[in-house]
């Protein structure tokens, strides 16, 4: 909604009328409290300080499907979820499709946190995201980091100890990591489209989205490496003494990553950030050297090469996370109060 209003002078003060639709939407009237924020671009934002009731009109995503496009139902559900819709209604023309649609819904619910079936009959199904709290985004990202960290550490442990069971368990954690990733993405996008965040925070939320993606990719690399570890164990292939070179490099990476995900806030001292990025880059170069060494014997060690390559990619993703974490200097420069 974009309209032009003329400023009015009453006594020694300047006033502007507020849109009636906006006042009605948030049940505002004389005496209601609003918050006013001056953005860096000169715009003035006014928002209700208290919102007693939820908006009456919920965003509903209606997806019409037929027998030919039933395979597209999964992607449609995921897209609607990520776009922040709270209720998703799917209509299908034939009762014979109900079984297949139900199977797809069960698959979607495995990766989409809070998505539940609230109504279903032979021609339609209604899904709702029942999570009432959007969650603290930094906290959700830290939880993602803890899962991803356990995955890449246990890949190495499984390789060192020839532990089949541990290697087989690692891909199962990727499902939980993906659930959190989708939920973080949904939460960020919902905040962005609702205009409930300040202009100065937009870039920060974009960075959070990229951090979550980098952590999700760490999990993907660990999952792929775990499968190669299983194959290596079956063939009796290992790194020999070079495993300790890899362990040393991974330990250095882990100290950096562990420090990030254990902080109460996703921020870091500028000097500390610089040192951590240097440690991360040094560890990556060590892994590259090891990979080049393994490459000389690819006839017998191509599987090990892929495992080491996965850790190089993990080092790159950890570096990406570091580059997106705001320094405490940046946060201090963003703090200002309009009275």
TrEMBL record:
Lineage of the organism: Archaea, Thermoproteota, Thermoprotei, Desulfurococcales, Desulfurococcaceae
Record-annotated SpoVT-AbrB domain positions: 11-48
BP-aspect Gene Ontology terms: intracellular phosphate ion homeostasis; negative regulation of phosphate metabolic process
Residue ranges annotated for the PhoU domain, each copy included: 141-228
Name recorded for this polypeptide: Phosphate uptake regulator PhoU
Molecular function, one GO term: DNA binding
Organism superkingdom: Archaea
SUPFAM superfamilies membership: AbrB/MazE/MraZ-like, PhoU-like
Pfam family, one: PhoU
Database matches in InterPro entries: PhoU, PhoU-like_sf, PhoU_dom, SpoVT-AbrB_dom, SpoVT-AbrB_sf
């Amino acid at each position: 909604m974009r309209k032009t209003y003329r400023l009015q002078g009453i006594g020694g003060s300047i006033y502007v009328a507020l849109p009636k639709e906006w006042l009605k939407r948030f049940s505002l009237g004389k005496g209601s409290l609003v918050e006013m924020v001056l953005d860096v671009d000169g715009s003035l934002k006014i928002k209700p300080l208290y919102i007693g009731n939820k908006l009456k009109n919920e965003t509903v995503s209606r997806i019409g499907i037929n027998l030919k496009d039933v395979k597209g139902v999964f992607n449609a559900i995921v897209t609607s979820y990520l776009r922040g819709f709270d209720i998703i209604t799917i209509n299908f023309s034939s009762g014979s499709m109900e079984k297949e649609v139900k199977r797809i819904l069960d698959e979607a619910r495995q990766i989409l946190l809070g998505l539940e079936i609230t109504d279903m009959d032979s021609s339609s199904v209604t899904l709702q995201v029942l999570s009432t709290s959007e969650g603290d985004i930094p906290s959700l990202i830290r939880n993602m980091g803890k899962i991803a960290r356990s995955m890449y550490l246990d890949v190495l442990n499984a390789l060192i100890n020839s532990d089949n069971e541990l290697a087989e368990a690692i891909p199962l954690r990727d499902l939980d990591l993906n659930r959190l990733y989708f939920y973080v993405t949904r939460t960020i996008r919902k905040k962005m489209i609702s205009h409930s965040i300040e202009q100065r925070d937009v870039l920060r939320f974009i960075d959070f989205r990229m951090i979550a993606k980098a952590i999700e990719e760490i999990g993907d690399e660990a999952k792929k490496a775990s499968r190669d570890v299983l194959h290596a164990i079956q063939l009796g292939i290992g790194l020999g003494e070079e495993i300790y070179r890899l362990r040393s490099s991974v330990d250095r990476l882990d100290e950096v990553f562990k420090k990030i995900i254990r902080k109460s806030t996703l921020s870091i001292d500028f000097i500390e950030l610089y040192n951590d990025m240097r440690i991360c880059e040094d560890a990556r170069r060590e892994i590259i050297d090891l990979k080049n060494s393994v490459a000389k014997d690819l006839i017998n060690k191509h599987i090990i090469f892929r495992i080491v390559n996965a850790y190089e990619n993990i080092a790159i993703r950890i570096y990406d996370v570091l580059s997106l974490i705001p320094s405490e200097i940046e946060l201090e420069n963003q703090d200002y109060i309009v009275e």
